[in-house]
Design a protein that fits this description.
The chain is elongated, with a radius of gyration of 24 Å. A hairpin with a 3-residue loop joins β2 and β3. Helices cover 64% and strands 9% of the residues. It has helices spanning 4-29, 44-59, 64-73, 108-111, 128-161, 167-198, 211-249, and strands at residues 34-37, 77-78, 82-87, 100-105, 206-209. The chain has a five-stranded antiparallel sheet with strand order 4-3-2-1-5. The chain is α+β, with helices and mostly antiparallel strands. The chain contains seven helices and five strands. α2 crosses α3 (64-73). Keywords: Membrane, Transmembrane, Transmembrane helix. This is Claudin domain containing 1.
Length: 250
């Protein structure tokens, strides 16, 4: 028999966990973690230059310097697995042409590509800090989702066995998931800051955080609140169980 307080805490924890997992999943799959605002392009020479950057971005070899410069100058957005640019209507003869978002994904080998102290210059030496920040920012959210899936499977087995004993472990898994998500956001912000130090933004180009990053940031405290409710329910149930056992023995 489960006390109503424990049942309420478990239901709320489940809702929070589902919301946090959905938010994190959407954040991982979308491309708006960081976005750049570039000035309007004027002049045929500038348009030709940007067209060549775009073609290199879409069809050229993977190079951090190349795609970063293109993102800076073409209102780019970048996520954990995507990098996108906006194709300007000024490139076309038709002035009423719509602007299009063109994206390329980061392949798994590209995610493990080392970062260099001078982007594009392979002779400058590997920047270990930026390299491992980049790897952590895409590995940690996957670890977070894996922990939540494991917690869900454990909870399902606990329901089948009609036992509250695994709740403590489920709470710890949610706590670790929340910490991994928070670490993801921190690694991403630190990595972008270091990138902007070695690759200066062009004049009149501004960078800002995107809504995908905020979704990930929101999911972290939701997982932690779910963990707090689960840990409270596990601790309170354990205390009441020992009290009832002592009472029966007495």
């Amino acid at each position: 028999m489960v006390d109503n307080r424990y049942a309420t805490a478990l239901v709320i924890a489940c809702v929070l966990s589902i919301l946090a997992t959905v938010y994190l999943s959407v954040a991982i799959g979308t491309k708006h973690w960081y976005q750049y605002s570039s000035p309007t392009v004027r002049g045929e020479a500038n348009v030709s230059d940007l067209r060549s950057l775009y073609e290199e971005f879409m069809d050229g070899e993977f190079d951090e310097k190349t795609y970063s410069d293109t993102l800076f100058r073409l209102n780019g957005t970048v996520g954990l697995w995507w990098r996108c640019v906006i194709v300007s209507a000024h490139w076309n003869k038709e002035q009423d042409a719509k602007m299009m978002l063109e994206c390329r994904s980061f392949s798994l080998p590209q995610q493990f590509t080392p970062k260099y102290k001078e982007p594009g210059n392979h002779n400058s030496g590997e920047d270990m800090l930026r390299t491992y920040l980049w790897r952590c920012q895409f590995l940690l959210p996957l670890v977070s989702l894996g922990l939540v899936v494991l917690a869900g499977l454990t909870g399902f087995c606990a329901c089948l066995c009609r036992s509250l004993t695994p709740i403590l472990g489920i709470g710890v898994l949610h706590l670790l998931a929340g910490l991994c998500t928070l670490a993801t956001v921190c690694c991403y912000l630190a990595g972008m800051d270091l990138l902007h130090r070695v690759s200066m933004l062009p004049d009149k180009v501004d960078g800002s955080l995107g809504w995908s990053l905020y979704l990930a940031l929101i999911s972290s405290p939701l997982h932690m609140m779910a963990a707090a409710l689960l840990l409270w329910a596990a601790r309170s149930h354990s205390q009441n169980y020992y009290r009832m056992t002592a009472y029966r023995v007495a």
